[in-house]
From TrEMBL:
Transmembrane segments: none annotated. Gene3D superfamilies: 3.30.70.920, Winged helix-like DNA-binding domain superfamily/Winged helix DNA-binding domain. Keywords: DNA-binding, Transcription, Transcription regulation. InterPro entries: AsnC-type_HTH_dom, Dimeric_a/b-barrel, Tscrpt_reg_AsnC-like, Tscrpt_reg_AsnC/Lrp_C, WH-like_DNA-bd_sf, WH_DNA-bd_sf. PROSITE patterns: HTH_ASNC_2. Residues 3-64 form the HTH asnC-type domain. This is AsnC family transcriptional regulator. The lineage of its organism: Bacteria, Bacillati, Actinomycetota, Actinomycetes, Micromonosporales. Pfam families: AsnC_trans_reg, HTH_AsnC-type. The keyword DNA-binding applies. It comes from the Bacteria.
Amino acid sequence: MQIDDVDQRIIASLVADARASYAEIGSRVSLSAPAVKRRVDRLRAAGVIRGFTTVIDPAAVGWNTEAFVELFCTGRTTPTQITVATRRHPEVVAAYTVSGEADALVHLRAADIAHLEQALERLRAEPFVTSTRSMIVLSRLVDSPTVVAAPD
């Protein structure tokens, strides 16, 4: 699917505020509200826009501690097993299979170090996890929503 500059600006507007009306977005991109709706519908149908969501500030709800945890797993652990297991833990923000020594990388958020330790212990208790290596985040330097730039 070809995404032009107008589509890119519509996507950027939705990333900034998914509750913006088609009229508001239209005024930003110089289109009518119906034209914006048609483009959004086309982007949704093509799978470019997969949905709309609410983004919660973790600090606002008291989850100020975060860490990245490398998981080392038994030899026959599949990505599906890791996915199913990590989804059981509310502290898991994201999980990825990765190259390198570790089998997976898990992003955790917790209220404090004690809560993080509890979450880590539950994660380590998964039957396929042989060991973990954790890195606690000291500060966020860049935290950007996903916006793909239009090709030149």
